[in-house]
Amino acid sequence: MKTQHIHLINQETIVGFALLLLAAVGGGAWWAWQTTTPKSVNQTPIPSRVEKAPVATVPPTVIPYHTQKPSVMTVPPRVIPHQTQKPPVAKVPPRVIPTPLKTSTPEINQPVTQLQAQIYWLQVTGEQIRLIPQEVALKPENSSEVALKTAFDNLFTSSKPSHLTTTIPAGTRLLDLQVTKTGIYVNLSGEFTQGGGSTSMIGRVAQVLYTATSVEPEARVFLSVEGQLINEENPLGGEGIILTEPLTRQQFAQDFAIQA
Fold this sequence. Notes:
Layout: H1 2-36, E1 118-125, E2 128-135, H2 144-157, E3 174-179, E4 184-188, H3 198-212, E5 221-225, E6 228-229, H4 249-255, E7 258-259
Parallel strand pairs: 2-7, 4-5
Antiparallel strand pairs: 1-2, 3-4, 5-6
């Protein structure tokens, strides 16, 4: 055991001596190389394998991310008018054209003429026969023709006053009435000729004549029955009353004893 320990010490001593010798030889060689090799003034020492050469610190360049857009200079947008927007138009004041003054006389509103149509009844006193008028209600602005038709409708259909009478047969109708420049044409139904004597015939003709001329007393009347004109050739009724055509108030009063 002691012998083995001594042997280990001898080995360590030998190894240590060898290392020192190697270091001395290497150091001498390195010194000799340094003294024989010319030195450069600006020669940079060669770093050893363990020591790293210093690296200059350079700030890293920042590379923008792909999604990051480069900065763009902001330019105010140009306003383009819409197609439907019309360009401004300069307003021009309208030209005023003076209206010529009217030299004519201004119209004056005339009052509406109210026609006064009448129907006639008979008043018998003894042998004397008299015509009694009765007013007929009419609408304003009615024509003479319309007013007379309304009057005849009242004469043939309305009830007579109690103290007056009529000789016009019941059922008599107005078939037609026309107002022209030549006169008033009255056409009655056939009932007008039925019944009664000469006095009755004269009375009924007088009622028709005065009713037809109530709007215009001077008018002439042409009396027909069922379209046949009553005149000298065509007397009225069975008694044969001859009438002179056209009929007028003045002529009738001279021919027959009837007062109005």
